[in-house]
Amino acid sequence: MRWDPRVGDAMGACLPAASVFLSFSDPLTGDDGGGVPGGGRGGASRFPVDHEINSRIYLWRGHPWNLEVDAVVNSTNESLDETHSSPGLHAAAGSGLAEECSTLGGCRTGMAKMTNAYDLPARKVIHTVGPKYAVKYHTAAENALSHCYRSCLELLIENGLESIAMGCIYTEAKNYPREPAAHVAIRTVRRFLEKQKSKIAGVVFCTVSSSDTEIYKRLLPLYFPRDRQEEEIAVSKLPADVGDENGETVIDERKIRIRPLPAGAAERTATTAPIDLPFDSGLASKRSSFKLDSYLDPSFMSLIKDPDLRRKEQWEKSAQAQKGFNYAKLLGYGDLGCPSLSAAEEYSLHSRYLAKANSLNLSEIAEMKIIYRGGVDSEGRPVMVVVGAHFLLRCLDLERFVLHVVKEFESLIQKPYSIVYFHSAASLQPQPDLGFMKRLQQILGRKHQRNLQAIYVLHPTLGLRTAILAMQMFVDGEVWKKVVYVDRLVHLFRYVPREQLTIPDFVFQHDLEVNGGRGLIVDPRTKHIYQRPSG
């Protein structure tokens, strides 16, 4: 169903023909109502008629992944596994979807993550995790559900996409009441489009049951009125609480806890309690003069150290480090001037880089194949492959490369993993100094240091061994003592099976040149290495 037929079709070929969308008569003429009975209030409409917004709204009876849109929404669990996803989605998308989901590192309730759509007509799949419902946590569940819809729409815009099809994120397994959840979904989309309508071409609400369809048919005119009459009727039928500017429920009592306190010390000392006043006016005066900061020390309102003080301490650490004799710089390994960070500071640094990495398109870095996922090692641990020869320092944006590293490693560092580093022919390329390596380790965080089990270095040179020794001394002895040197490719397969690695052709060639292929045969078709039969 196209919500406002008076506006031209903005979706074009993205959606099926108009005949397959739902059509219905005016749902506001009946007595069933769309909101909570008696919950509405008179006065100005909180959702006025907006034909431009209405032209972007569709109601579709069927599964969202049958539509040719930019993105479809999958309601899933925090592990993003197939069994808890929208029924039928993975079967329609193919096995590649589950494989990519397994690399995302899960998703928190109220958040969203994006993958390719594989065999679906859509371009992308946005995965989100709806909340479990409990009556005593009604407001928390309502806001988490609202955040699901908003996160999906934000992710759509961040990736330059314009159309989205979303089913009911509030699955029956999580016990969310159907009609209150539909109110949250519809009003959140309405509030989002009020701010971002120029960036979105279409939002399709998809229902698979007749009961959900009837709910949406009743509620859509309340939040997307098509004319002045529907707008006036919606004023009386809308619930009393329709959320804030984002569609979320605001609890007034909680505003005090997060409200910044004004610097009113002088004002506090000048304020005196009124005397000899009538009871009612005295009470009013006390209310107006009440200030929370008269009872609390402002230092208790801050959970983190003052930014200026923290920056000063970092400068002092850096200056102190530079005063000492810099052996690393003397040996030509660069400046290690970046100060050491606490666990909390490393966590904050990692979180900032991860958030920025997830918001950017880093495909040009990924195409360089400097780092990429392998299979698993002989212990069953996931493997990250690093190709030194692909690290072209002169034509690489190091900041974007670091963001790409953080994004790729995020799913691995949550549990034990290994790294395979191909140094084959890498000595011909300039390498980053120790200061860069120390900073990269700080950004990856302590979880990376703790869960990294081994670094298998293939074809190490004397220069590389010396550099790793320097990193053990000056950067991080715990991490760099996990290095395992491997001189021959066939020996690497003792630690990581051949079928678990995608190995560049030049690595095979380099191995033959360095080791002479003694006793070995390389199959040029499969790139497998075999022992030469004796005799």
UniProtKB/TrEMBL annotation:
It holds the Pfam family Macro. Gene3D superfamilies: CRAL-TRIO lipid binding domain, Leucine Aminopeptidase, subunit E, domain 1. InterPro entries: CRAL-TRIO_dom, CRAL-TRIO_dom_sf, Macro_dom, Macro_dom-like, Macro_GDAP2. It comes from the Eukaryota. Residues 44-224 form the Macro domain. Transmembrane segments: none annotated. Residues 361-507 form the CRAL-TRIO domain. PANTHER family: GANGLIOSIDE INDUCED DIFFERENTIATION ASSOCIATED PROTEIN 2-RELATED (PTHR11106), GANGLIOSIDE-INDUCED DIFFERENTIATION-ASSOCIATED PROTEIN 2 (PTHR11106:SF72). Belongs to the GDAP2 family. This is Macro domain-containing protein.
